[in-house]
Amino acid sequence: MNPFTEHPSSVGESYGQHFGVASRFGLRMIGGGVAALIHGVLPFLFTTTGSRTIEALHGEVVAKRADEIQKRSIEFII
Length: 78
Hints:
By secondary structure, this protein is mainly α. Helix content is 78%, strand content 0%.
């Protein structure tokens, strides 16, 4: 398989869709990381931003995996 489409296909996305999702996740991680660095220097700022970012991204990944498992189960049964 094509290395540009093998992984996106394995998570139910086209290359373009995967690029968009991965880019959005990456930018959110950078934002959360910058907030955590600022919080390290100025502890009264961004007190929950890093942990909220992690929690939100984790929730999205778990939900996406659950959707894919359910789709595969239904396809297998049919």
